[in-house]
Amino acid sequence: MPIWIIAVYSAYQGLRLVFASENNEMNLIKTNIFKRTRHPAYLGSLLIYFGLCISTLSLISFALLIPIFLIYNRFVDYEEKQLIKQFDDEYIAFMRITPKWRIKFRIK
Questions:
Q1: Closest listed residue to residue 101, CA positions, set 50, 36, 26
Q2: What value, to the nearest 5°, has the Cα angle with vertex 68 and ends 47 and 11?
Q3: Which burial class, exposed, middle or buried, applies to 47 when counting CB atoms under 10 A from its CB (0-12, 13-18, 19+)?
Q4: More confidently predicted of 31 and 15
Q5: pLDDT value at 23 more than 90
Q6: Distances in Å between the alpha carbon of 69 and those of 24, 54, 57?
Q7: Phi/psi at 49 (5° precision)
Q8: How far apart are CA 101 and CA 59, in angstroms?
Q9: Is residue 46 within 8 Å of 69, Cβ to Cβ?
Q10: C-alpha dihedral over 91, 92, 94, 95, to 10 degrees?
């Protein structure tokens, strides 16, 4: 059950913070869920899919999980290249302290 809560929270918070911004300025979001993981919406959707795999015990679903992850990883790599072009050293520093595919529970 906790995986569902983490997954839905991560996806919701990531999308809410990105799309709820009322200003047109492009700023790097490094607060809330984004200080715990760089791609909360993607991570949340992967965790939801993983939870479905566990709850259905479907071997086909588990087999599809790897290619789905690889596709998401390509999306993320492309987006990160674009973010590095846009935010340069600020995003590189953010990448060093914030995990890509896991949630950092301890914030120093």
A1: 36
A2: 35
A3: buried
A4: 31
A5: no
A6: 31, 16, 18
A7: -60, -45
A8: 23
A9: yes
A10: 120
Q: What DSSP designation does 33 have?
A: G
| Domain edges within the chain | 2-97
pLDDT in tens, 36-79: 999 999 998 999 899 889 889 999 999 999 999 999 999 999 99
**Distances 92 to 3, 27, 51, 96, 99 between C-alpha atoms, Å:** 29, 14, 31, 6, 12
The angle formed by the CA atoms of residues 54, 66 and 51, to the nearest 5 degrees, is 20
pLDDT of residue 31 exceeding 70, the answer is yes
Q: Which residue has the tokens 């939870």?
A: 51
- Per-residue pLDDT at 1: 55
Whole-prediction pTM: 0.79
Distance from C-alpha of 87 to C-alpha of 58, rounded to nearest angstrom: 42
CA proximity to 43, closest of 105, 99, 108, 107: 99
Q: How many residues does the chain have?
A: 108
